[in-house]
Write a sequence for this structure.
């Protein structure tokens, strides 16, 4: 699923790229024109989200910019629409008022772009002296970008009202309860980030050594049942559990539960992709912001892990003395993580035991993005590539780092080193958390 080990020659790598381009486009269409009417594609369900037709045309425009113009040297097809689909030129709240392509026009545009990309792929040389094409980087970047927008589209689907538009596959993974609630990660250095993953983003680079004090980390993400205990203990009404900013957030918004939860009798239900159902106690809590995660951790006598702690617990193999790409190893293997929209929800505690890290920490990849306590900053030796708007413009204390991906994240778009980030108030994304504490 990626050319990590260098075993693919250029021809085989291009065949893999063509397959992945086809797979991600099938996913995009399955979230837009194949399941929704035009009014739902052009409407806006929330100021936080773009109209779905914007996302569809945007991924095509991004693909044209990088794979046709930059990689293949082909003249622009529709230069007059570049500004409409520049994510930095127009905030999401403004996009419905723009003269966007209609769903039919957007579908035709992305199809034409894709046909030209596949036609030109054989002529583009993967020159190792050109960092844009070496190892197929720019193609991997475009595939990951579209998968990331597909996850954003799923967040839009979750916010939409009305009847379900997406199939809800049943869970099939066996349950194997964890032997302990938390594990010890010994003190010592480990290698954080990457220098040799050809499809990694600039903010994951460069690999560097971090010396981490000993700590304990939960073997599973915090569950709905555990989070409900915090709620029932008055967690939302006790200021000592909250940062000043978090307390102001909960007072000003009136939030007293995760997003999409509501009371029904003596229990709780949630709305999930148009379905109303009892909150499953064993699933990881989802749709909580950083302030809520931090408050829960304080209430539980713990804290959120730092980004370095999270990555060490996920990636470091103390026997081999090196980091791995996934918790279980260097290659993606089906059945080890809840990724790629195989479900429309997180899995229950005890599932995906074969995906545990070397320390025995489970479900660090997939299920829910996990908040860390760390702000989003550059690693030592960072170099912006191929454009500063992917990472560099977001560095600072305004954003918190999230790790691990969610059930909505495609396997190509996540790894132990992958760094997501968002404002601490965000809840529409598929976020949860696990706790850590200093080793006694």
């Amino acid at each position: 699923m990626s050319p990590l080990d260098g075993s693919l020659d250029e021809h085989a790598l291009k065949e893999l790229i063509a397959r992945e381009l086809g797979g991600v486009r099938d996913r995009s269409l399955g979230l837009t024109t194949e399941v929704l009417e035009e009014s739902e594609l052009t409407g806006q369900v929330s100021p936080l989200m773009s109209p779905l037709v914007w996302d569809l045309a945007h991924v095509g425009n991004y693909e044209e910019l990088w794979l046709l113009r930059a990689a293949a040297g082909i003249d622009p097809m529709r230069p007059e629409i570049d500004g409409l689909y520049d994510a930095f030129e127009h905030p999401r709240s403004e996009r419905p008022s723009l003269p966007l392509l209609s769903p039919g026009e957007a579908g035709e545009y992305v199809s034409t772009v894709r046909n030209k990309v596949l036609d030109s792929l054989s002529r583009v040389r993967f020159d190792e002296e050109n960092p844009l094409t070496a190892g197929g980087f720019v193609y991997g970047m475009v595939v990951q970008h579209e998968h990331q927008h597909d996850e954003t589209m799923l967040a839009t689907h979750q916010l939409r009202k009305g009847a379900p538009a997406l199939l809800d596959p049943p869970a099939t993974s066996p349950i194997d309860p964890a032997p302990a609630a938390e594990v010890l990660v010994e003190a010592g250095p480990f290698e954080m980030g990457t220098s040799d993953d050809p499809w990694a983003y600039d903010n994951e680079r460069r690999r560097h050594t971090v010396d981490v004090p000993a700590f304990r980390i939960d073997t599973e993400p915090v569950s709905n049942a555990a989070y409900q205990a915090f709620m029932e203990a008055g967690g939302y009404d006790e200021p000592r559990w909250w940062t000043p900013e978090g307390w102001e957030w909960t007072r000003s918004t009136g939030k007293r539960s995760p997003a999409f939860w509501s009371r029904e009798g003596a229990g709780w239900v949630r709305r999930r992709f148009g379905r109303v159902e009892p909150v499953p106690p064993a699933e990881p809590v989802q749709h909580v912001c950083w302030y809520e995660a931090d408050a829960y951790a304080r209430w539980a006598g713990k804290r959120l892990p730092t980004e370095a702690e999270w990555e060490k617990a996920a990636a470091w193999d103390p026997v081999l003395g090196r980091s791995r790409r996934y918790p279980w190893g260097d290659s993606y293997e089906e059945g080890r993580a809840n990724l790629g929209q195989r479900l429309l929800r997180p899995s229950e505690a005890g599932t995906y035991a074969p995906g545990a890290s070397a320390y025995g920490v489970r479900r660090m990849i997939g299920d829910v993005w996990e908040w860390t306590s760390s702000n989003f900053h550059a690693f030592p030796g960072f170099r912006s590539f191929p454009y500063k708007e992917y990472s560099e413009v977001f560095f600072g204390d305004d954003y918190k780092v999230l790790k691990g991906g969610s059930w909505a994240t495609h396997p190509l778009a996540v790894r132990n080193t992958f760094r997501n980030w968002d404002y601490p108030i965000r809840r529409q994304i598929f976020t949860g958390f696990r706790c850590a504490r200093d080793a006694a």
